[in-house]
Amino acid sequence: MKILALESSATACSAALCEDEKLIAQSYQNNGLTHSVTLMPMTTFLLSGCGLTLEDVDVIAVAAGPGSFTGLRIGVAAAKGLAWPGSKPCAACSTLESMAWNLAHTGLEICAVMDARRHQVYNARFASNGETLERLTPDRAISLEELGAELKNSGKTQLLVGDGAVLCYTTLKGLGLDVRLAPPHLQFQSAWGVARCGLELARQGLLTDAAGLAPDYHRLSQAERERLAKEQNKGE
Q1: Is residue 152 part of a domain?
Q2: Rounded distance, CA 47 to CA 101, Å?
Q3: Is residue 236 part of a domain?
Q4: Domains: count for the chain
Q5: Are 95 and 63 in contact (CB under 8 A)?
Q6: pLDDT tens digits for 77-128?
Q7: 101-123 in b/e burial notation, b at 16+ Cβ within 10 A?
Q8: CA–CA separation, 195 vs 35, rounded Å?
Q9: Which domain holds residue 143?
Q10: Which of the 8 DSSP states describes residue 78?
Q11: Does residue 235 sit within a domain?
Q12: Counting CB atoms within 10 angstroms of each CB, which of 2, 20, 43, 200 has the fewest?
């Protein structure tokens, strides 16, 4: 099964082409340009460099959330555009689970964390056995205090991955917890992880179509929060 995967949930963006677990090609950019400028050309060049076209792709996978609201919208819109003409099935992948797949070989508990601002992190926890992942929590927005208390109850070494890893490491280490940082080259999002997550969704029969593909923000945007606050104030 050939999977074309897109990752634009944070500062960097990437595209990858995989056949089942095998990485065929991957392109990664973290140069400050917006994803709307880089993602589609990167994907086009990746396919042409492999001598393939969209017709050769079986599934379009994308990091659907959590993450940057703008980045997620760009990635999902790109995936829709790629999938729609050929009616390709799509995989709406958890950004957090996709990051954890990069560390499934470690055999440790993996704590995926992204900075969610407002004194919270987006987080999900996984157990790895050297080959696969077992999800321990749903994707959620959680405070560092709550996460620290949960990890203390676990009592196991935690491997931190994501753009919130360094922040969490400092705080959790100060609480006396056994936490480790993922190595720099595996610490952030990659399209290969999205492809690997997409493969699991395909095997579980959890794919969707282009029309059904949508971002999963996990909480309201600032504009939506402000609108609700205004409506509540008017009602008082």
Answers
A1: yes
A2: 23
A3: no
A4: 2
A5: yes
A6: 999 999 999 999 999 999 999 999 999 999 999 999 999 988 899 999 999 9
A7: bbbbebebbbbbbbbbeeebbbb
A8: 19
A9: 103-186
A10: H
A11: no
A12: 20
